[in-house]
## 1
Amino acid sequence: MASGTEDPNQDQTYQNVTVERDGPVAVVTYDRGAKLNAFDQTSILELTDVARRFRDDLSIRAVVLAGSASAFSAGIDLTDAATWEPLEDDVALRARFARGVRLCQAWEEMPQITVAAMEKMSVGAGAAIALACDWRVLAEDGFLYVPEVKVGLNLQWGALPRLITLVGPARAKRIVLLCEKLGAQQSLEWGLVDELAPSGGSVEVARGMAEAGGGPPPPAGPRGKGAGETPPPPPPPARAAQNNRVARQRVCWITVAV
């Protein structure tokens, strides 16, 4: 895989990921060609590398993240041998376990506008990385599904706080604990996605949003997330502590309930 010391404007060659540039907009396509586009360890590392390269690429102002035509992603590939490879080094083991979290953080922290273009299914880890993007476009015949509780797991990859932010704690509990498949219209009404697209048309709609959100920069300076915004003043210490306690309680409630 490519190292992070090379020119960020120079596209790299990956096994499962391609990068297409069109002016200020890039389309990143993740397609394994099998297993309903489930994430293996190679794909996680490749997508993380792509996101980190865009962090330093000032020529791109918006990025579309697309999966395959048959599935955005069916989640984590539990048959990937690299996921279960024995590691004697505890540090390496922790690093492997944290790869999904770091992948989503890398996409969330990109300075560019990010839009997930989702066809068919977005399951588990597939939903998690979509939640890390700024906007989400879902095909009309697509759905989101987080089945982790059914197999005795918590929602992974740092997705729970993002889910709570989008839909609120009550709906987040329902999505996680009841493991309901959310169709396109319900996902739109609940705020999980921002636009619907005809089947096979999610990339086109997402590209349109990316072009609008990442268009030419204004004369005053670069355009991007947070450009021109004045950060709010920090809350008083007591209120900040209270907010932190509430956030922890929301997360812990679901963890304990599981």
Note: The beta strands are 17-22, 25-30, 62-66, 113-118, 121-123, 135-139, 143-145, 182-183, 195-197.
## 2
Amino acid sequence: MLRRLLLLTIAMAPLAGGLSAQDPEEQLRELQAQVDSLRRLDLERQLDEMRRDIAGRTREGSDTWLELNGWVNFDLIYDFKRVDPTWEATLRPSTIPTTPGQYGSDGKTIFSVRQTRVGLSGGMDTRIGPAKWWIELDFFALGADAGRTALELRHAWGEVGPLGFGWTWSNFIDIDTWPNVLDWWGPSAMALNRNPQVRYTWALPTGRFALAIENSNQSLTTGVLGETSPGFVDDIEAVGRIPDLTANYRHDWGDSHVQIAGVARQLSYETVDEPDNEPKGSEFGWGLNLTAVLQTVDRDRFRGGIVYGHGIASFINDGGGVNLAPDPDGGALALPSLGLTAYYDHYWTDVLSTSLGASYNTHDNSSEQQSFEIESVTYGSTNLIWAPSSNFWAGAEFQLGRRLDISEIDAFDYRIQFQVRYTFVEALR
């Protein structure tokens, strides 16, 4: 095609006054240079099209993809009261002291970047369906590092078709009911935890159904035995002998959904360094979690849930309870727990929004528990968030928490939190 264009141009050259005096060889060289330039432009256009195709490739496509994502987060908090210093960068009602002055006098300013988050995700197509994975960390250290600004694993999860495995949100919870709040710990009574698990999900015409076996998070209190036999009770431990079995069914319509989830679990305990590890035993634990996200007007959403069960305190975000407690007959009880959460996300404009709501968790405690153990916790918050773009927001939030002990002694904490967050997403492949 290009050769024909050269010959045609040379043949018409005498008709062009500006070229008639030029040597044919020189004329041919100029035309060849123009063709080379056109080739380069065409190649660059093809490369641009390829780059756009790669950048816009959907995750359901046949090629692999890799993405870096996360956010940089800064919090400035003023606590009008005090909480356990280990958890001062968030409001956990269970850490509010019911003994005045336990953590110092009222009032403290806290600076924190612990909510900063980074993640890496990727995927590809396989013969048995799409495969995807993600790893996510933040700087809100837990466990032995609690209270420090240090890397903490949030998710390490992979899926191949309907099969998922790794560490992520429990199959018992509904993360979509998490409201648009600034506080890291958030509503105390909602079912919210992450677990190592293996999960299988069936896609349905209007939703999904999933079954999972999960690591069994155990907790217990020795109650008044801690006062009468402190050395003995130090050897009593909770034991997860078999995995928890969880299931959930979700029904979607439009931007709304309802979900019901259940868990069945064995709650075991034993005494180490004692003959035959006695006393030992186990109780049956179970729970139900009914949740919903309901679109009301435009972008506004109601988010809420009711969770109830026996021995499910380790699934509750911050109820302050335990799965097992001693009963008067010398055995153990799977303690009943009830959690209620209701939040409303309202958009004043395209860039201004407010989330308002409350959460309440209570336990039916054993008569053998100690008076300073928690009876109930209450949490509430409201905020104003300005989000002028999809990757930036700034906001202010007021939070209130209450802790009530078995002794009927209670305590409150309230604080205000200012936050700035920049979100990033970068396609690496």
Note: The chain is about 10% helix and 50% strand.
## 3
Amino acid sequence: MDHSEISPLGVRLGAVVIDCADPDRLATFWAGLLGVEKYAPIGDPVQYAGIAPPDWGAPYMSFQRVPEPKVAKNRSHVDLHVNDVEAITALVEELGGSREQDFDEYGYRWRVMRDPEGNEFCLVYLRPRDDGRGARFAPSGRLPHAGN
């Protein structure tokens, strides 16, 4: 693929890499959550594992073993735009993740979740609100995220 077709500078986001204690476990979790293929892990014990991108042109996710544990809130995280937040919450919990907190701020709604190692990610609502106010979209047509 010619990267110059991706952006004027020839740059594109290729991967989101998550440091973790058990790359194979997190790759299994995220592959199950996104419904994508899990790549063959590398190393014995596994040092790197990855999953296929959910959409053409999207970055793939990679998980890399690190010796230090997660000790604080992530400085960056993944947002998943979902149509049915309750169904995806149930899937996250079934796969070993957990629910943290719901937010409704500045006209946007999202739910903070954690993967099996405690890394935060958000489920961002794409369906209209039950109160009739509807979901707000940025001028780009994308739902912005105010953070957590």
Note: The chain has a mean pLDDT of 85.
## 4
Amino acid sequence: MQNKISVIVPVYNVEDFIERCIESIIMQDYTDIEVILVDDGSTDNSGDMCDMYAKKDTRIRVIHKKNGGLSSARNLALDQMTGDYIFFVDSDDYIYPGTLRELISACMDYDADISCCGYISGNKSYYCNNKIEVIDNFQAAKRMFICDGIDANAVCKLYKKHLFQNIRYPLCVYEVVPVTYKVLLKAQKVVNTYKVGYYIEKRAGSITRSSFGVNNMLYIKMAGDEYEIIKNEYPSLGDYAYTFYLNALVSMRECAEDDNKCKKTINFRQINNLFLKYYPDIKKSKLLVNRKKIIAVLIKYRLYKGFKSIYYWIINELSALGWVLFLPASSLYLAGLHLCIQSTDGRLPL
């Protein structure tokens, strides 16, 4: 049985990260891999560094192309890959030792079409409780829509190649939104290892960390379009897709709190109007996580910045004293809500 993994890495102006990324892949103890590095028109030394690695390791293939964005790079690699499985890595990220073996073993052991791992970003870990779970495609899609163990990221997942037959990423930002749920629904079985396998680099200038603008509105539109498709084609998933949409509203509205200049823009007014329109649904949602509800309340009552400042002030003061403390911001927000945002009957407006 062939179990070759095609590791697809879009590359664009990441000369400070690409070596770490490639090394993490070629040093895996699972060696039946091809590494496709797609240089998406880099203007720094990234492309040359990829070529250097290709000369040293025959498993590495480099494709140089004009800049077309992350989606076009992934799609080109999908068209040319020769593996039986697909694993995406972003070029500023890296994977932990043993990740590929762990994921392909999970697919084999449980006869699954997709296996997932947890990840670390900054000093926080996500989906890393080390408890293996095997679910069907509908359960996997539900989990993705409410970010419960699975999210919409292309990374952190090993896919059988047939899942991408007739599926490609749209040429836009937030390209995973209309794709990941389709791939999950094509699978018969999904296994989640809940083991840390991937590191996501927090980097200024990335799409999710760029200034507030048209991309934020696009994300909301794509989440809304996804909901419309799901409620018509998969009615039992409708509430979950709607939760994904509400989550997108809160997340994109929260982005505006960190960008003082954006509040005079048309995009902000559009997003804020949608946020206020759907705020009642956000409050009463049974599937949306409490953290997002708390953030929504703080934004609605213009307390977000104040509580965020207090949180970081406390952390900095304790750090100065040499204390090591992890205090979730949502805990502080919730405490503040009890003090400051009570409705007339004394209950939290959640």
Note: DSSP finds twelve helices and ten strands in the chain.
